[in-house]
Amino acid sequence: MNKDVARILVSEDEIIRRSIELGKQISEDYKDKKAPILVALLKGSVPFLAELMKHIELDIEYDFMDVSSYEGTESIGDIRILKDLDRSIRGENVLLVEDIVDTGRTLKTVKKLMKDKGASDVKIVSLLDKPDRRVVDIQAEYVGFIIPNEFVIGYGLDFNQKYRNLPYVGVLKEECYK
Ligand code: 5GP
Q1: Fewer Cβ within 10 Å of end Cβ, the chain: N or C?
Q2: CB of 119 shorter than 6 A to ligand 1
Q3: CA nearest 156: which of 76, 37, 42, 14?
């Protein structure tokens, strides 16, 4: 285990098993609909996207968006687009792929953006959900794991761009950020 990790919250095995379940559920839910375009939010969702999509038995496409809030560490509603989608999503079913839903502001804004771009349907799949931190009304249709209000790293999640490569989700030791 990495020396900066206080404890592992979700193991690699658990993430793989849950991704298989979510992939099956998504495949079932969209089987009579137009296959979704998976829109993954950079950079945190990349490992989860890579695992999840192997278990979706549909002719999906995937694309990336990179957004950032205008201010410091606390995320705010107003976002800046650093990388936009490569193609039009007008009339498409979009499945947003995210690492974690925290305050919910990012996803609420991006979901609206997808609708404004003409997507006919927008749903959300998130590896993690921290419901205690929510400040806006948004709910992911597909959630990997509900976690307590602690700062987590690994499986795409960073602290100052580090730890994204850890193969599990862990709690960062307080001494690393205090
Ligand atoms: P929201 O707009 O829901 O507050 O922000 C979501 C984003 O905040 C996530 O995509 C992630 O980048 C960041 N975030 C929220 N909670 C955590 C956490 O516990 N650990 C890390 N590393 N990032 C987090």
Answers
A1: C
A2: no
A3: 42
Q: What is the CATH number of the domain that holds 134?
A: 3.40.50.2020
- Which atom, in ligand 1's list, is nearest to the CA of 135? 4
Q: Give a three-class secondary structure readout of 8-28.
A: EEECHHHHHHHHHHHHHHHHH
pTM of the model: 0.95
Each residue's pLDDT tens digit in the chain (178 positions)?
899 999 999 999 999 999 999 999 999 999 999 999 999 999 999 999 999 999 999 999 999 999 987 654 455 556 889 999 999 999 999 999 999 999 999 999 999 999 999 999 999 999 999 999 999 999 999 999 999 999 999 999 999 999 999 999 999 999 998 7
Q: Of 128, 149, 157, which is best to mutate to test ligand 1, by the most ligand atoms within 8 angstroms of its C-beta?
A: 157
Q: Is 105 in the pocket of ligand 1 (CB under 6 A)?
A: yes
By annotation, the residues acting in catalysis are: 102
Residue-number span of the structural domain to which 129 is assigned:
5-176
State the chain's maximal CA–CA distance in angstroms: 51
Nearest-CA residue for ligand 1 atom 16 is 102
